[in-house]
Automatic annotation (TrEMBL):
This is Zinc finger CGNR domain-containing protein. InterPro entries: ABATE, ABATE_dom_sf, Znf_CGNR. It comes from uncultured Solirubrobacteraceae bacterium. Pfam families: ABATE, zf-CGNR. It comes from the Bacteria. Residues 153-196 form the Zinc finger CGNR domain.
């Protein structure tokens, strides 16, 4: 488990051999990927792990883990919504895929982010949201990516129990899975057996 925790802290895991997102989205990607929903470690379950993640990036750790968890899952919901056409998203503990995020879920995600950014100050030269911890840096990076149009390339894998954030470098922005060999193949296999039943 320690090896997986270190991999999450350092963001050294990139399924499918994908390159990490460019800055500033790499920080958002690393933050969303502070949990391995399939294999277990969650850096937000242990304050020391969250401190290690923030310090690895030269940032001040967030004061309240619950806020960090809410922001992370709100960002993941928005990354699932970046799938086009809408991907089929599995809820926690589900045995199979379900529908993409409902508009209410996306609106709720934006409400969480609005509340989190209320404590930040806008700056214009250069454009950023300024705050004093890692959460502020993540939110500022998301804000900049939305402003510059690169946000839609950061997606969350719709694979069962995955949700891994990845950067879509395909020409037409049509990548769906963090790894076609793993999550994509699993989905194809489930669909095949479902049709055979």
């Amino acid at each position: 488990m320690l090896v997986l925790t270190v991999a999450l802290i350092e963001s050294s895991v990139q399924p499918g051999g994908r390159a990490p997102a460019p800055e500033p989205l790499a920080l958002v990607q690393a933050f969303v990927n502070t949990v391995d929903r399939e294999h277990g470690p969650d850096l937000l379950d242990d304050p020391d792990d969250l401190v290690a993640w923030a310090e690895y990036r030269g940032l001040e750790p967030p004061a309240v883990i619950e806020h960090a968890r809410e922001v992370r899952e709100a960002l993941r919901t928005l990354l699932w919504a970046n799938q086009a056409p809408p991907a089929r998203i599995p809820p926690e503990g589900a045995s199979g895929p379900v529908s993409a995020p409902e508009p209410d879920a996306v609106a709720a995600a934006y409400a969480v982010l609005d509340a989190a950014t209320a404590r930040l100050s806008p700056r214009f030269a250069p454009l950023r949201l300024e705050g004093d911890d890692a959460l502020a840096a993540v939110l500022s990076a998301a804000f900049l990516a939305i402003a510059d149009g690169s946000w839609t390339r950061l997606k969350a894998c719709p694979g069962h129990r995955c949700g891994w954030a990845f950067y879509d470098r395909s020409v037409n922005g049509s990548a769906t899975w963090c790894s076609m060999r793993v999550c994509g193949n699993r989905a194809k296999t489930r669909a095949y057996y479902s049709r055979r039943r």
